[in-house]
Amino acid sequence: MDVDVIVVGAGPTGLMLACELALAGVRTRILERRTEPRRDSRALTLHPRSLELMDQRGLLDRFLALGRTVPGWHFAQLPTRLDFSALDSRHGYTLFLAQARTEALLAERARELGAQIRYGHEVVAVSQDGDGVEARVRGPRGDETFRARFAVGCDGGRSRIREAAGIGFPGTDETLTGVLGDVAVIDDDPAVLDAARARGVLVAPLEDGLTRLVYVDPERMRVPAREPVTLEEFRASLIRICGFDCGVGEPRWLSRFGNATRLAERYRSGRILLAGDAAHIHFPAAGQGLNTGLQDAMNLGWKLAAAVHGWSPPGLLDSYDEERNPVGRAVTGNTEVQTLLAELTLVPQYQRPGAALRELFDELLRVEEVNRELAAQVSALGTAYPPTNPGADPLVGRRMPDIGFTTTASEATRVYELLPQGRFVHLDLAGDPRLGAVVTGWGPRVTAVTVTERDDHTDLEGVREVLVRPDGHIAWATRTADLATRRDERHNALTAWAGTPS
Ligand SMILES: Cc1cc2nc3c(=O)[nH]c(=O)nc-3n(C[C@H](O)[C@H](O)[C@H](O)COP(=O)(O)OP(=O)(O)OC[C@H]3O[C@@H](n4cnc5c(N)ncnc54)[C@H](O)[C@@H]3O)c2cc1C
Asked: Is 247 in contact with 186 (CB distance < 8 Å)?
């Protein structure tokens, strides 16, 4: 084998996955068709759950140093914003950061951890047998063949790896397109941009003095995404929508994008797996695609590493599809709702009921519980995986809250500070120092911590022990005081998730 895992595609998903695999000591090679890193930036947003993941891996400061935070984001471009700051997270905000920057930071991290990134290497075919996978590659040295134990297609919506694995991609074709422009705005009167916002144009300042304007022009919304956008068209559309062209000057990038919506039938076929846009595509409503890809990678990385290192318990790798496919379904679903809410007001016969529906939705967003629910969806803080055990504590599958606590060694710390190595964390919240030794059979796979004092958290009331997965979700929790029951439950949970003890 040349390496353990071949990751196809150095987009955000492939880079994040390479970081996770390399962190776990897996020999990883990314093969990327582009000859150099990306310069344009489709995505701009890193939402709260993605920021929590960066925090868990000790990377957050690198990201915060380059971006700008905003306290919430939108749903269907409705005037009432989603309030991320009301959610239970230390990172209840969105970070504005250009996709190219996110990719550069992840590439830097992947290399630090020892992953190889090979630009100019296009994978033209992938096949698999009982022992591994074989990728045929067209690169600077001509045609080459690489072997690995697994391959992951992070190669975007038109994924060749998905096709090679015979995984279907059902869904709907593009029926509507929008346009984005990263442009110099010569008329920098804030009132002009506010007026554009009020007419449904998404306005986002970029870090280099340019402004991103995004819109759907009713007269051009059936133009296929493959048709290039000219500056004349861009200006004419703005005048049609706003009554003025926002003083648009030279563009750096104009692009048309569509609402084709598809979800892979499954995320795994034997030794080939899919993540990110290769597994799900949708309209970029509320900026969720890149975020979902990062979260796929976080879910898959440690499971694939377990399979490579030979300690994977039965079903662990399959749980990637079981857990992430429903998330892909939910995200594609909510983007379809948002697209419909926007489209209705653009189609003449639905304009009035469409506007009434948007008003109704906007009113609903002013109801705290509704806002919180949708904010939890878009931020992905609400993502919970179904428990495998029917009698499980309600916390199982949910993300572990980042509570602060003191350990028996009198160290003040918090949960996410215990996750940078991507290991399981066993927290004895009841503070019995004897329990530290009971997880030693799992060696370096599990970090055991005894808590003496901790922050209050309603969800954790009465909880005595928690096993946190490497991706920050809860594998097991118990509230029982009976030591013998706890011992059995703990042993079963550790064996089910972290494999048999050595
Ligand atoms: C207009 C627009 C705005 C968006 N805004 C946001 C946003 O604000 N927030 C957000 O979360 N998401 C946003 N998205 C979505 C986001 O850009 C994508 O979800 C994200 O890029 C997906 O990352 P990925 O790594 O899965 O795939 P990609 O970014 O598509 O990367 C795939 C990589 O694989 C490479 N590749 C393809 N085929 C091969 C091959 N055969 N061999 C080798 N390499 C190959 C490609 O060159 C590419 O580098 C937006 C999308 C659009 C269109």
From this structure: yes
